[in-house]
Specification:
Helix content is 40%, strand content 14%. The protein is α+β, with helices and mostly antiparallel strands. It folds into three domains: 60 residues, Helix Hairpins; 68 residues; 148 residues, Transferase(Phosphotransferase) domain 1 (Transferase(Phosphotransferase), domain 1, Orthogonal Bundle). The strands form three sheets. Strands 1-2-3-5-4 form a five-stranded antiparallel β-sheet. The chain has a three-stranded antiparallel β-sheet with strand order 6-8-9, with helices on one face. β4 and β5 form a beta hairpin. α1 packs across α3, α6 runs antiparallel to α7 and α6 packs antiparallel against α9. The radius of gyration is 21 Å and the shape is globular.
């Protein structure tokens, strides 16, 4: 891959970067870019100050792209890369998730195809030496909300909107996802999309809710602990709490944000909503009334 950038500019670019995407602009060709950059700045041939640090940082990015990053979720250990997300865990839980994923991608009306942009492209389970892995193929690079840190209001607005739109679709299909949380929702930075990466707790509306996320149990409405029935308000509440988590309040409540963030947004979070479709419509009106409409690039 020919480069027109100078070794000095490469060193500055890498050392100033915070994220992989700032160095490898086309992640489908990251390995070619890595080789070209490494050849330019290797300390054996490049004596410019900062070359050693830049190569070390470049190598750490390469390792992340090769091995991926990991986190735990309700089924086991998740490893996510630029184009895949693999979950190693209990085969029964993984099969339950895969069954509901396959159900959602089996719908073929236009509205279904539109909403399938919020899902991975495909999925399969493999078992080797008694270790089962559910592997999702991703349309674009995705990052779990739990790995994003704190984001500004503008970005949380569109992520929250995508989550509400997704659960409204689930509601139309007669289901409660019941597992919306910072580990299950991945963000696509490039096109401002989201991907739902697990369906462990998905249940038909009105049926008994068999499971819930232990790690994020505090985000569920109180009635879940009592009657254990799958009701649509569960998904609404989980989306709200996840949005507040992303704004920096890990409790998901938002009280601590009232002096620093949008009060109309926080008032909306504090209201009781029971219909996902109406909740989405109401939130879109809130955005129109209180925020400028513009695309905010997310470099992460």
């Amino acid at each position: 891959m020919p480069l027109t950038i100078s070794p000095g500019d490469v060193i500055v670019k890498i050392n100033k970067s915070k994220y992989i995407i700032e160095v490898f602009e086309d992640l489908s060709k990251w390995n070619d870019e890595y080789k070209a950059y490494a050849k330019l700045i290797h300390p054996d041939i490049c004596k410019i100050p900062g070359a050693k640090d830049a190569l070390s940082k470049l190598n750490s990015y390469r390792e992340e792209l090769q091995k991926g990053k990991t986190h735990a979720d309700d089924a086991g250990c998740v490893t996510y890369k630029t184009d895949k997300c693999s979950i190693v865990g209990d085969v029964n839980i993984l099969n339950f998730s895969l069954k509901h994923f396959n159900k959602l991608i089996s719908y073929k009306d236009k509205i279904d195809l539109d909403f399938q942009r919020y899902l991975p492209k495909s999925a399969k389970i493999t078992t080797e030496d008694s270790i089962s892995t559910l592997e999702f193929n991703l349309p674009l690079r995705c990052i779990p909300i739990s790995a994003l840190g704190t984001l500004p209001q503008g970005h949380v607005n569109w992520i929250f909107s995508r989550m509400l739109e997704f659960i409204a679709y689930i509601y139309k299909k007669g289901y409660v996802h019941a597992g919306i949380n910072p580990d299950s929702i991945y963000v696509e930075p490039v096109n401002h999309g989201i991907n739902a990466m697990s369906f462990y707790h998905m249940t038909e509306i009105g049926k008994k809710l068999g499971t819930a996320s232990g790690k994020y149990l505090y985000m569920y409405p109180d009635h879940v602990r009592v009657d254990k029935i799958a009701t649509p308000d569960i998904d609404i509440e989980l989306c709200k709490r996840t949005a507040i988590y992303l704004l920096g309040d890990k409790s998901g409540i938002g009280t601590m944000l009232r002096k620093t963030h949008s009060l109309p947004f926080l008032d909306f979070i504090g209201k009781r909503h029971t219909d996902p479709i109406q909740t989405y419509i109401e939130f879109r009106k809130l955005l129109d009334d209180n925020f400028e409409r513009k695309f905010l690039p997310l470099s992460i």
